[in-house]
Write a structure and sequence with these properties.
Order of helices and strands: HHHHHEHEHEHHEEHEEHEEE
CATH architecture of the largest domain: 3-Layer(aba) Sandwich
CATH class of the largest domain: Alpha Beta
Number of strands: 10
Number of helices: 11
Shape: globular
CATH superfamily of the largest domain: Vaccinia Virus protein VP39
Strand content: 15-25%
């Protein structure tokens, strides 16, 4: 591909924003070069405006999906930033179970509905599932369901496949958890069936209206809203509020805050972590 110009960067930024909600400014030309050059080679062009025209003109939508997959590839790992998972294990889940038992009775099956709103290739979802398994054992008396969503078809497909290369396993997963919750298959490690069974995956664009068959007890939406404009972040968290249970828990990135952005949420602190709940 040719060196991307400021004009091309603006055109591509406008297009990417229109299909993903991701806000890339004029300084992000290098990102397009690093992530879309191979697509240009694939379809036989070295001109950025021509590549954009071909993507927009592709009635099948396949090229648009490839752009989304390339642009939205994010860093992820198992138990990334351990504090949210400690928060889940030692604060949120025990509190949630106590509240549900008081309402449903000690002998009732307790539903636990969790949404990982930007799950990438699934490591966050399976980290959550591992915590549930280690906390509740056989799961008798519990009905956990974890939904992982992402805008990238490629990421959702990989998450659903539940197989990881050793280099992915080594990023954040301790050896004892690997031995308990994964099985080796050739050169990859596969998530065990009892962990995989808790999760479902779906492609969702967070900039579009959200529709789910139930409200979520816990929502993880970490390090995705930082790529949106302020108005879009506000819209996103309003939508999240509408699908969160009245006494549910919202976990966002450790460097994020929505206190002024969405005052309908109240920050709560637990040790080194902050989570949010709806105002009552």
């Amino acid at each position: 591909m040719n060196k991307i110009t400021a004009e091309d960067t603006l055109a591509w930024s406008t297009f990417v924003y229109s299909i993903t909600g991701i806000n890339l400014d004029s300084s992000k030309g290098y990102l397009f070069e690093s992530r879309l050059t191979n697509l240009g080679k694939e379809i036989g062009t070295h001109v950025w405006s021509d590549l954009l025209y071909k993507v927009k003109s592709d009635v099948s939508g396949k090229l648009r999906k490839k752009v989304i997959d390339a642009i939205t590839t994010n860093e992820t790992s198992f138990f990334r930033d351990t504090s949210p998972f400690d928060l889940l294990q030692f604060k949120i889940l025990p509190d949630l179970v106590d509240k549900r038992k008081k309402v449903l009775g000690s002998g009732a099956t307790i539903p636990i509905r969790i949404w990982s709103a930007a799950c990438s290739t699934g490591q966050e979802v399976y980290s959550i599932a591992i915590i549930l398994k280690e906390l509740f054992g056989s799961m008798r008396g519990y009905d956990p369901r974890i939904l992982g969503t992402d805008i990238s078809d490629e990421a959702v497909a990989k998450a659903s496949y539940a197989q990881y290369q050793r280099i992915e396993i080594d990023r954040g997963l301790k050896s004892e958890k690997l031995a308990k919750h994964f099985t080796p298959e050739g050169s990859v490690w596969k998530v065990r069936d009892e962990i995989r069974a808790m999760a479902t995956f779906k492609k969702i664009n967070l900039m579009e209206p959200l529709f789910f068959p139930y409200k979520f007890d816990i929502i993880f939406c970490r390090n995705v809203a930082i790529y949106f404009k302020e108005a879009d972040r506000r819209t996103l968290f309003q939508r999240i509020k509408n699908v969160l249970a009245p006494d549910g828990y919202l976990v966002i990135g450790s460097t994020e805050s929505i206190t002024t952005l969405c005052p309908e949420f109240v920050p709560q602190r637990y040790q080194r972590s902050v989570y949010y709940q709806k105002k009552t």
